[in-house]
Amino acid sequence: MDSADIRAAHAAAWETGSLYIFLNPSQKKIYDVYAAKKATNIKFVTNCSRKIGKSVLGMFIATEVCIQKKEALVAFVAPTVDNVQKYVKQLYQVVFSSCPEGSKPVLTRTEILFPNGSRIMFSGIGRGVGSSYDNLRSFAFDLVILDEAGFSANLDEIVDGALLSTLLPRNGNMLLLSTPPITPDHAFKEYCEQAK
């Protein structure tokens, strides 16, 4: 492929919201399993090593949903409370680096806004005890992504107590991404076992 063909393929990917061509090989393996299972499983768990790009993969999947469905609503829950904007800004810069300028969504302090009315809301839950996720209970989401879920306190309360019901009105999905937790009794390990 010459550079004009590559640019055309990239533009087409962004127009249709089929962003698979931008994923690395490890991300593609996870994506393939997620795509095959999402119709029959509301929760999808990814437990993998560091630095393969799972947070970036989560943002790519969120972006696909937002491009493909008008007025979609996605929650991207990050493992930090204090610097959630900085955290998401880094992901935004990586994911949208190949997006044509006229098609780029707008990054605000709390959301990524798409031209078709879709949006990715971001929230931080932190590693300690907190209820910063409670403000998400009243929404109806097409997708909820919990990044570094294995490092969130009260994960079972967050997942099953607060966020699972937000998926029901739109028949949405939940994606739990993490490296293995440090504590042996963390709820993320149970989600991994359930996923098997």
Report on the structure:
The chain has 196 residues and is an alpha/beta fold. The chain is built from six helices and seven strands, in the order ααβαβαββββαβα. The chain has helices at residues 3-16, 25-37, 54-68, 84-95, 155-163, 187-195; strands spanning 43-47, 73-78, 106-107, 111-113, 119-124, 143-147, 173-178. The chain has a seven-stranded mixed β-sheet, sandwiched between helices. Helix 3 (54-68) crosses helix 4 (84-95).
Number of strands: 7
Structural class: alpha/beta
Portion of residues in beta strands equals: 15-25%
From the N-terminal CA to the C-terminal CA, the straight-line distance is: 40 Å
Helix fraction, binned, reads 25-40%
Number of helices: 6
For the biggest sheet, the summary is: 7 strands, mixed
- Which regions are unreliable across 5 or more consecutive residues at pLDDT < 50? none
Spatial order of the strands forming the largest sheet: 1-7-6-2-5-4-3
Summarize model confidence as the mean pLDDT.
89
Please trace the helix and strand order, writing H or E for each element: HHEHEHEEEEHEH
Radius of gyration computed on alpha carbons: 16 Å
Shape by Cα distribution: globular
